[in-house]
Amino acid sequence: MRNPILSRRQVLVGLSTTAVLATLAACGTTGTEDSGATSGGSAVAVGEGDDSQVDVVTWWSAGSEKEGLAALVEVFEKQFPQTKFENKAVSGGGGSQAKQKLAADLAAGNPPDTYQAHAGAEIQADIEAGYLLDISSLYDEFGLNDAFPETLIDRLKDSEGAIYSIPSNVHRNNVVWASIEVLKAAGLDPDSPATDIDGWIADMEKIKAAGYTPITMGMAWTQLGLLETVLIADLGADAYSGLFDGSTDWAGDEVAAALKHYETIIGFTDKSLYTEDWEPAMRPIFENQAAYNVMGDWAVAGFDAAGLTAGTDYTYFPVPGTDGVFDFLADAFALTDGGPHPGGGKNWLQCISTKEGQIAFNKVKGSIPSRSDLTDEEKAQFSEYQQSAMESFGQDTIVSSIAHGAALPTKASDAMNDALTKFSQGASDVATLQSELAAAYASVA
Q1: Which residues lie below 8 Å from residue 135, measured CB to CB, with a gap of 6+?
Q2: Quick one: residue 311, left, alpha or beta (phi over 0 = left, psi -120 to 50 = alpha)?
Q3: Contact 262, 230 (CB under 8 A)
């Protein structure tokens, strides 16, 4: 299977190696060949040092995410009672507020011990800036090279084989969540969804005629999440992945056709939700006022919180045209260079990678463990959806999410979010949107 992230990084890392080494040398905490750091000229293993506390930055500050973090912290406190967990969670904007505060702290030389990021290209700039330590040695120490599937580990490596984060989970983004009541009211069979984008649009027309909102979406990152699934459906997995290594042209006709589909789809949405985060944008599905929402599988926890049952109240299926494709993203944690409690940071990374930590966290959050070595008994603790996602991740074609940092660096995804915001507000047309998306990719290519 091709790895678009890795092929991009061969260029990015090659260009940045000299700058990174210079930055690290200036800081006095350069990584060694065995992933250590120097202190007074002596090699120090990754994570060696103060473990009395761990300062952790996340954006898991509300709802099921907050509950998932609490479950993980409970496991951490049992595994490492000597290490105090210090919650530095920052809420808002699907992580945007946390990222802004984190960026300021890193630039000011005031890093936390560890922080949440999306696995993949999102952390490339922080690697290049010298903020993060190569934690490849921890994969050996924690036994993760055997516990994590190769398809996941490949997406975490740079061109030299170094790894800078450990994922706590795996999410799937190309999922449609639908109200069974609304589908039936529009004369649609909840068990027989459309098989391509044109068929899905035809179903939306029927839903609109029945007096319901066909599909909802929220703020910019949810719009980018919807767009990427339309791109996957229309381009196919290989051509979609080619958008990130230059083999598919962002300015080409295939992308233009997908953007026309996207334009048609968002014409069915409720514009009043465009400033909302994912859960308020999903609420019309909970309340049987709208039919569809495309969202990552953290949505499971939202349905659970609303007291709704899969197969009775709601259904789910891959975005039409993407069956057999798993649009991948993962929450991961990195170890900072210069964090005040390196031992505490290492303890946190070990906890989130253990079976106990991953089972406790993912059962609440709606994602699936990044470990592939769970027993049948352990898998049985998860919901029907999660068990199906585990099966899909093991057999489907894996592609990387744009909206959630797996496919492109933050600079590009931020620019794409801005372009989509303009488009949803009617401030640009399809041709302008396409040129802005192409420019966003070119800025990091």
Answers
A1: 35, 46, 47, 163, 164, 165, 166, 334, 335, 349
A2: left
A3: yes
Domain boundaries, the chain: 4-171+331-380, 172-327+402-442
> Which tokens is 269 given?
């949405």
Q: How far is residue 93's CA from residue 224's CA, in Å, rounded to a whole number?
A: 13
Please say if the pLDDT value at position 41 is more than 60.
Answer: no
Q: What is the pLDDT of residues 383-409, one digit of tens each?
A: 999 999 999 999 999 999 999 999 999
Residue 317 tokens read as 């299926």
pLDDT of 218: 97
Contact criterion met (CB below 8 Å) for 205 and 292: no
Cα gap 248→414, rounded to integer Å: 21
The token pair that represents 249 in the structure block: 């042209």
Tokens matching residue 430: 């399809």
End-to-end CA distance of the chain: 21
pLDDT at 29: 38
Per-residue pLDDT averaged across 267-292, rounded? 97
Q: Write the Ramachandran bin of 324: left for phi over 0, alpha for psi from -120 to 50, otherwise beta.
A: left
pTM, full prediction:
0.85
437 has a pLDDT exceeding 80: yes
Strands 166-167 and 213-216, by their bridges, are unpaired
Domain 172-327+402-442 has CATH 3.40.50.300: no
The CATH class given to the 4-171+331-380 domain equals: alpha beta
The reply to whether 172-327+402-442 shares the fold of 4-171+331-380 is yes
Residue 54: helix, strand or coil by DSSP? strand
- Give me the amino acid identity at 211: G
Angle value at C-alpha 344, between 340 and 349, nearest 5 degrees:
120
Of 208, 249, 214, nearest in space to 231 by CA: 249
As a whole number of angstroms, the distance between CA 139 and CA 36 comes to 14
Which of the four pLDDT bands, split at 50, 70 and 90, describes residue 95?
A: low
Query: Three-state SS for 293?
Result: strand
Task: State the pLDDT at residue 16.
Answer: 36
User: Residue 59: pLDDT above 90?
Assistant: no
Taking only Cα atoms into account, the Rg of the chain, rounded to an integer number of angstroms, comes to 21
State yes or no: pLDDT of 354 exceeds 80. yes
